[in-house]
Amino acid sequence: MISIDDGVATVDFFGVKRLVRLDVVDAPVGPGDYVLNHVGFAIRRIPAEEIADTLALYDELLRSASDDLLAGDVRGELDATEVPR
Amino acid sequence: MNDLEALRFRDPVRARALVDALGHHVRRAARPPDRPLAVMHVCGSHEQAIARFGLRATFPEGLEVIMGPGCPVCVTDVPEVDEAVALARQGVRIATYGDMLRVPGTAQSLADARAAGAKVDVVYSVTQAVELARRLEEELVFFASEFETTAVATAAVILAGPPANFSILSAHKYIPPVMEIVAEMPGTRVEGFLAAGHAATITGWGVFTPFVARHRVPVVVAGFEPLDVLAGLVRLVELIVDGDARVDNAYPRCVDEHGNRAAQAMLWQVFEPMGGRWRGIAHVPNGNLRLRGAHARWDARRRFKIDLAALWDHAPPALVQHCQCGDIMAGISSPHACPLFGTACTPDAPVGACMVSTEGTCRIWHQYGGRPDLRPRAAGATP
To answer: What's the pTM?
Structure first.
């Protein structure tokens, strides 16, 4: 998480900037925190020390074929947090 | 062992240890070959991980891992799709998640309706649907599918006050009640459940405590990363073999006992559980999430007169009668037992919802080679 403005966080996901709403997150969050994103909403703050395996998996998924279903879901989550035009 | 070398585990040592532990507990069960230890997961992402990472090839003989009704698109029943199609054909603009587009209704899918001129938009989030409504003068109905984790997002936008031309056609589903149905099915072989991690992020693992007390079968909450799935299965099989019916949490970095209370409060402020049919399963008491009366002004079912009769002049395609999607989701059949799988029913020309959704068992099996269990099975083989 990079910054927060009016209940919406700007997050960095492998270099891609996205907006994630904080309406339903379970704990106070701030810049530097990791959150679990679901369809554009942060649903849980995840301690930084528990994030390494998840990042490694996503890194691999994002480099995999375009028809990969798990990778597609990850890309879908990215698209769900796209900055509104 | 060779089977693990094919898997792209970041940590093969941990994977090896988990596979060995799984084998150890399954051997302790000492089941005859014709009566394997059967567990069910209720999560499309679990099946994706199992298929994508070839996990079934690592499962020991004597363990059967069945996918239950964990694909929200698949369990969305025909009448709910019909409502969306009818609204679209009445000229109302519909926005929905991409997976819902091609799910067959009685006569048409939303994709069919769009091809015939209806206004149907694909969005990745309910927030995008709200943004779309703000840019339009006309009515916009968000056809809201998926389980409670996603229903929370729908609840949040309702509570935040969407524009007046926005409304919700809710096909949201609530997972815990359908587990009751599966557990009570006559002749069910399921001895334990692997529950979906992200749903439990919202509800907490404690939501399964009454279920375990009623049915005396263990439930383990697991994440969707391959090592998480393996770790959850190890714990689940251990509990089954020990006869220890309890809820356990194999996904502690995202799940705790009580879950996200703020999200639960929003979910239940906006939605109420109602009985309804799940495609292929049954009537599920409290399985559908519908808008409460206090939020009636956002409810498309109350805002519009939805005329379904116009759809019922069309006979359903004959192939649908052979579709085994329902039995597959109930865990009593598998894609390989379906005569349509991979021939008459493919991702490009799906007959049933299980071949449409990226979380559907048939789609997943088809995507990953049609036979995710690559291990040769000798008749009568022992563990």
So the answer is: 0.90
